TrEMBL record:
Annotated ranges, domain CHK kinase-like: 237-425
Phylogenetic classification of the source organism: Eukaryota, Metazoa, Ecdysozoa, Nematoda, Chromadorea
InterPro entries: CHK_kinase-like, Dhs-27, Kinase-like_dom_sf, Oxido-Kinase-like_Enzymes
Organism: Meloidogyne enterolobii (Root-knot nematode worm)
Signal peptide: none
Record Gene3D superfamilies: 3.90.1200.10
Record's protein name: CHK kinase-like domain-containing protein
Amino acid sequence: MTNNIQINNSIPSNFIPSNNCCEEENKINFNFDKFINPKLKLKYILEYNWITFGYIINELANGSIKFRKILENGGFVEKIEAIDINDGKGFTSRLLRLVINIKYTNGINIKTKNFPSKFSLILKIFADERIEIILEHFFGKERLEKVMLKFTEKLVIENNNEKINDKVVSTKINPVLKESMASFTRMHKNECLFYKMMNDIENPPLPIPKIYFTKNCREEENEEDDKINKLGPQGVILMEDLTGNTHITPLTKGLNEIQIMEVVKYLAHLHAYLSLPKIKEKWQKNFVTIEEMWGQSVAEEFGSAMIEQIMELDDDIVEPFKKIGNLVIKPEFVKWMKEKCENNYGVPEILTHGDLWNNNLLWYNNNPNRLAAFIDWQLATIGNPMTDISRLMLATVEPDLRRKIEKEGKILELYLNELNKKLVELGMEKVNYGIEELQHVYNLAIISQAIGRVMEIPFFERGTPENDPEFKEKMQCIKTRAKRSINDALKILEMEAPEWLNKNEEKNGKNN
């Protein structure tokens, strides 16, 4: 029985709770093995034999004051339940809800009666083994094989033939997969960096889960490293469990106007904090643009392959896409948009979420219009400050409601008011631009994001199981929003930059 277990539950007197729970380096860790059932300690998660329950409990106790207090007051980890909450089908990650069952060595008394018998958290594992599956969802198996062959041939031409062939044979990894692996591991690092940056702010400007521990991916897998570190190459995040009292708004339902305004308000607050000199210095040093993250060579090959398969979609999507679709993979167009925003409209780049849609927003169950958390910061990159708002509007809002809100100018007015108010609160000056300039910047973001909405159609078609009861409804929703988005983007390009539209049509004419 638990009350017969004799354990010294005192925390070392020299233990100082770390304020850097998201930082692996320069952190003093204490061992909490004695607080866990010995039979449980060496059990591991899924196929990751280095992610043991003992490892998780130790990192959790070092990163969570609340959990540490449970142990200090007689808590003993008797059992852990691991529940796969995304059925192994996450984009690049495996998500598990861990429920820790706790028994108190001295029974329930005055000290322990207010402590819980269960403590839950989310374990996020960067699933490097999913990368080839993800790429197949984007391109299809046959087209992916062509992309990999073409990319390898390109490397052979650009480098020493023998050297490249030896490299491919020795690593047994196609260069496309290796380059993709580097980009995807960078995505996990981005998320860890963002949470660390927010952890350094006493009152974060927007709701995010509490982060107990992060581990970056090891860039080069090496057997000798495994022997020394006893850790695998996968990246890990331990975070607060919000599943019990929150939900995700279904894609097909879309966000309502109140929810949209809630998100915009928090984004404005985030952008104000990111303007603080010390924080600005951090994100400018640690983050890159989306183009830099993917790498030019891979981006060009992937972009061309994606455009090729989009030509197989319905004409009412293909025809407008033909006119502007390949602009997004042109470095000169990306550069032009950045310079236009900064030089013509006075709106500088900022750190963005990069993947803001319904799946990455948690809402409270008891108040569906109140935002509980922004999650999944893997695509946090430097770019147009309207990137997240434009993606939110195109991907998660019904087109008629989106057009109504855009016409009324409510979102930009709210954003600018909240941004300036927060800047002043933080001791900084208001921005020099107004609604008119911001509208142009929003328009340019719409162009890029609309192209993205079309490009993701094949991914969702392959990535969503056909036995999903909502498959047809989801795909219809995605295609309808993409069709409206690309047509609106075409009108915007005609208004904002007709010279680029003419250049694109001339090139398409030559190709035909």
